[in-house]
Design brief:
This protein is of the alpha/beta class and about 375 residues long. Helices cover about 30% and strands about 30% of the residues. The chain folds into two domains: about 210 residues, FAD/NAD(P)-binding domain; about 140 residues, D-Amino Acid Oxidase, Chain A, domain 2. Helix 1 packs parallel to helix 6, helix 3 crosses helix 6 and helix 3 packs across helix 9. The chain binds flavin-adenine dinucleotide.
Length: about 375
């Protein structure tokens, strides 16, 4: 990279931008990543719960993308540990989805069937079997389904590790000021404006999460990407904790490696508002205590909220219409942590060889 020119500029240093930077650097391309915050991973990628699920609940090829990404996690965790000495706390804890009535059971057993057809294992458990696995579960549950391949990761550590790994391989970071505009020559993007200064590159990746809609609009190709707020509650483990991620009643409970328990998350379309509310917190605590009554005795630690990048069409991955050197990688909504490894890999392949190893056609950004 010369003084103000990079091969590739990545806008946004969340988990997606950092995964792209890491994958490019591994392929010997040294990108410049720009984030408006003073460190990477301060937004949704910090706020997320870190659940990695083997999703088969929606139409292909989206679940295929999820499965491909989940499959990359074990080796990526090892690679990042070796290269950066950061343990991203990838734990294959499995998910135990509890049900309280026949209607909930039918929905979960349908989901289990779909996952089995995709080669995952699932186990439908009686209440007694579920209590054996998780003794703190309510005596009112009727049963549960175990999804053993589901896993979790400590997402803030993952972002730090990706950025550190990328930096070690030559990626550069410019932090503390936003990209406010683009420079164009003959309709082609040649640079970005940061703090009133021009930074040039041959190609650009827009990976600034739920703010990507604003930047794509500046390029006259507005993409429908916006914020979906999620609130989370963190408590200290009660005397007995959980071994699995537990979900039910519209919430999930994640036992973290540090002994704390995370309850999440709301899904709210309220604009760029990151406040936490009594109502949101209550919703998770009420459901959590119904699932595991002893949670009522745990010590309350903290609440927070983050803004998921929401699109109606799933993640948007590929060249912006009308541009041959601007790629969009955003809109991962509830699964950006899960999808970061495959997104980083496919976008790096697209930039370096023009041939991603999985077709990005279904995720092509389409103008609204
Ligand atoms: C409560 C909650 C729970 C979640 N749980 C899970 C989960 O369990 N599993 C899972 O897979 N996913 C989960 N998610 C979703 C996941 O966190 C997101 O999909 C993912 O973090 C999106 O990453 P990103 O890099 O696209 O966006 P962000 O992490 O939001 O990063 C965008 C970055 O762009 C920067 N930026 C913005 N504008 C500019 C600009 N103009 N110039 C420069 N920089 C800019 C920001 O500072 C930020 O660092 C959850 C999200 C929330 C909020």
């Amino acid at each position: 990279m010369s003084q103000n020119h990079a091969d590739i500029i990545i806008i946004g240093g969340g988990i997606i931008g950092c995964a792209v930077a890491y994958n490019l650097a591994k392929r010997n391309v040294k990108p410049l990543l720009i984030d408006r915050a003073s460190t990477v991973g301060t937004e949704a990628s910090w706020a997320g719960a870190g659940i990695l699920t083997s999703h088969a609940s929606t139409h292909e090829p989206y679940p295929e993308l999820c499965r491909a990404s989940l499959a990359l996690y074990p080796s990526l965790a090892e690679e990042l540990r070796t290269e950066t000495q950061i343990d991203i706390e990838f734990i294959q804890s499995g998910t135990l989805s509890v049900f309280f009535n026949a209607a909930e059971a039918a929905g979960l057993i349908g989901l289990a069937d779909r996952r089995v057809k995709k080669g995952f294992s699932t186990e439908v458990l009686t209440a007694e079997q579920a209590w054996e696995l998780e003794p703190t579960l309510s005596r009112s549950i009727v049963g549960a389904v175990l999804f053993p391949e589901d896993a979790q990761v400590r997402n803030p550590k993952m972002v730090t590790a990706l950025a550190k790994g990328a930096a070690k391989l030559g990626a550069k970071f410019q932090l503390g000021n936003p990209v406010t505009g683009f420079l164009r020559e003959n309709g082609r993007v040649t640079g970005v404006v940061v703090n009133g200064e021009a930074l040039y590159a041959d190609a650009f990746v827009i990976a600034n999460g739920c703010w990507a809609g604003e930047l794509t609009a500046q390029l006259d190709t507005p993409m429908e990407i916006g914020p979906a707020k999620g609130q989370i509650v963190l408590v200290e483990a009660m005397p007995l904790t959980f071994q699995h991620i537990v979900d039910g009643l519209g919430i999930y409970i994640v036992p973290r490696a540090d002994g704390r328990i995370l309850l999440g998350a709301t899904v709210e379309f309220v604009g760029y508002d990151k406040s936490t509310t009594v109502d949101g917190t209550k919703q998770m605590i009420d459901a959590g205590v119904t699932i595991a009554p002893q949670l009522a005795h745990s010590t309350f630690v903290q609440t927070w909220a983050g803004l998921r990048p929401y699109t109606r069409k799933g993640p948007l991955l590929g060249y912006l219409p009308g541009y041959d050197n601007v790629i969009l990688a955003s809109g991962h909504f509830k699964n950006g942590i899960l999808l970061a490894p495959i997104t980083g890999q496919l976008i790096a392949e697209l930039l370096t060889t023009g041939q991603p190893s999985m077709s990005l056609e279904p995720f092509q950004p389409v103008e609204v």
